[in-house]
Amino acid sequence: MGLAPHNVIQDAPLFEEDNYLNDPRLGDGIMRLAERYRVDTVFSANLSLYAQQTVNGVNYVTTGGAGGLLLDADESFHHYVVVEVAGGSVGISPGRLNVDRPGWWRMLSSVGSTIYAFFYVSYPRFLLIVGLLTLLAMRLYRLIFEERHYYPDFDIDPTPYLEKSLRVAMVSNNYFPFVSGVSVSVERLRQGLSDLNHRIQLLVPRYREPWQDDDTILRVPTLMAFGEKREFRLTNPFSARFRRCLREFKPDVIHVHHPFWLGSMGLWMGRRLKVPVIYTYHTRLEHYAHFVPLPGALFRNLISHYLIKHFSNRCQGVIVPTYSAEEYLRMIGVKTPSLVQPTGIDTARFAYANEEALTSLREQLAIDPADTVLVSVSRISKEKNIGFMLEALAELKRQEQTSLRLLLVGDGPDRQAIQQQIETLGLEAQVTLVGAVPPEEMALYYHLGDMFVFASTSETQGMVILEAMAAGLPVVAVRSSGIDDVVRDGYNGFKTPQNRQKWGQRVVELAEDEALRDTLGSQAKTFSADYDIAKFAGAVAHFYAEVLAKYYSNQDYSSKTQTSVEQTN
Question: Poorest-confidence range of 3-12, 211-220, 306-315, 528-537?
């Protein structure tokens, strides 16, 4: 029973008065039933004490089990009960628990008993527990006793490496003739570093189409190509030419531009050659899950972030184009020293365009002088969010904003789907898919426009936005990482949430206010001047020197310099 059917002791312990059956008639009735049916023993358990009484031939035992009061008394103490039944007799005796020992002694006894039980019951389990405790102790030791330096080491002097011509091996999974943001970035860095008298060796995939290669470019054989135009190349990861080229070049620095395939080979060779490896974070991999033959959620939410974190932490330096990209790397656990440096642009090249060529191009594209021309440059692919702009323009058309003309410059696997969407929305007269444009002609297309529009949320920088600014175009873009750093709202353009109405309102505002367009466009041109290729290459070269100085800080610099001179000779 839970509650005792009768008054066990005259003076019940404190707070125990209510732990009897609250109706004496019910208690008396239960006791009469026990007597009628010759019950030997009745147990009740809701009082924190031990009591044993015999009433009319029935033995009544009240036991609080192990839960005695904090202050043990004659009736209330921690105990267990032993019941022995032999034939017709029942023996009942309490076993008192020893709770008088100090707490520390009881804790040690408990730990000892636990260890003994694990060892006795399962030897492998005991080893597993010991191993886990050892790992925990090692982790705690590192956290508590190992010194950490979260600030840069200002005692490291990069000057010696700033005064010499460095040998830089650049490794990329993309390069011309395949036109992409990474290809452009790699080529501009190569040009900028060459202008600073550094020696560059480029290791990139082989394509079918020819390119103006020279002896500083090594094409790695391709095993497989995929994509609508077979633009994505999987190179031979065991290429002997790749390894031999790096050994013969004897680089001071290996600069990789992807965290997989050729990038992984570059990292591996960096360790073999004992030179620092620097990685440029170009691409938000989680937005490219549709290209990967894995469950989208698995790649997007787990694999992509782990891949970036693991690769970055194995390198000696990481270059990111924007502060928002750097924040992302820190959030996923990247601890490698970093440089925030956007890819440079040739501001002089985009600043002006030939008027005769512009007139000819306007005629070729049938642009009406009364049209407000919107220019957008990107790969025609799902991650670029082009459908968002088309739907926004369709809404503006329904509002009789028909003088807006959009030029989509670029090519990609979704070109047919975008063309079909244009036709479905009835935008054939307002939207033109220009296709791929040679890099040397891009300035003409920027100068055709009155503003630059962009909706991609997968950028780490948005290099085409800076190119458009260099041409004097204000920007209307969807707010996202990369975009947020280069578009200053109300200064060189507008950035909006991914909302068609708000994006469209900003487009109309610029279309209807020529003075505002001119002001923002002029300020955009001034803003872009800070991103010139020369400044870009200079900042990267200085970062190389810092990484080299830190990498060799525990070695004798003079011997390293002598070795480099001998390699150069």
Answer: 3-12
Q: Which amino acid is at 532?
A: D
Burial class (CB in 10 A: 0-12, 13-18, 19+), 49: buried
DSSP helix/strand/coil, 216: coil
Residue 248, Cβ density class (10 Å: 0-12 exposed, 13-18 middle, ≥19 buried) = exposed
Reduced to 3 states (helix: H, G, I; strand: E, B; else coil), residue 43 is strand
Q: In this predicted model, which residue has the larger pLDDT, 146 or 419?
A: 419
Query: Taking a C-beta distance cutoff of 8 angstroms, is the pair 170, 202 a contact?
Result: yes
Closest CA to 468 of 358, 372, 378: 378
Burial category of 347 from C-beta neighbours within 10 Å (exposed 0-12, middle 13-18, buried 19 and up): buried
Separation between Cα atoms, residue 283 and residue 185, nearest integer Å: 12
pLDDT tens by residue, 348-394: 899 999 999 999 999 999 999 999 999 999 989 888 899 999 999 99
* pLDDT exceeds cutoff 90 at 33: yes
Cα separation, 477 vs 473, whole angstroms: 12
Query: What residues contact 80, with CB distance under 8 A and at least 6 apart?
Result: 65, 66, 94, 95, 97
The three-state secondary structure class of 187 is helix
Asked if the model's pLDDT at residue 205 lies above 70, the reply is: yes
pLDDT by residue (tens digit) across 264-279?
999 999 999 999 999 9
Phi-psi region of 493 (alpha: psi -120 to 50; beta: other; left: phi over 0): left
Question: Is 70 exceeded by the pLDDT of residue 157?
Answer: yes
**Phi and psi dihedrals of 410, rounded to 5?**
140, 175
Q: Is residue 243's pLDDT more than 80?
A: yes
* CB-neighbour burial class of residue 418 (10 A; exposed 0-12, middle 13-18, buried 19+): buried
Question: How many angstroms separate the CA atoms of 54 and 154, rounded?
Answer: 87
For residues 512 and 549, what is the distance between their CA atoms, to the nearest angstrom?
A: 55
- Give CA–CA dist 532/526, Å, rounded: 11
Surface-to-core class of residue 330, CB atoms within 10 Å of its CB (0-12 exposed, 13-18 middle, 19+ buried)? exposed
My answer on whether omega of the bond before 177 falls inside 30° of 0, hence cis, is yes
Q: Which helix (H) or strand (E) holds 202?
A: strand 199-205
- Say what the pLDDT of residue 210 is: 83
Whole-angstrom Cα distance, residue 195 to residue 553? 28
Contacts of 34 (CB under 8 A, 6+ apart): 42, 58
Structural contact between residues 550 and 155, judged by C-beta atoms closer than 8 angstroms: no
Question: In the 8-state DSSP scheme, what is residue 426?
Answer: T
- How far, in whole angstroms, is CA 316 from its chain's centroid? 19
Nearest to 160 by CA among 566, 528, 551, 569: 551
Q: Are 167 and 201 in contact (CB under 8 A)?
A: yes
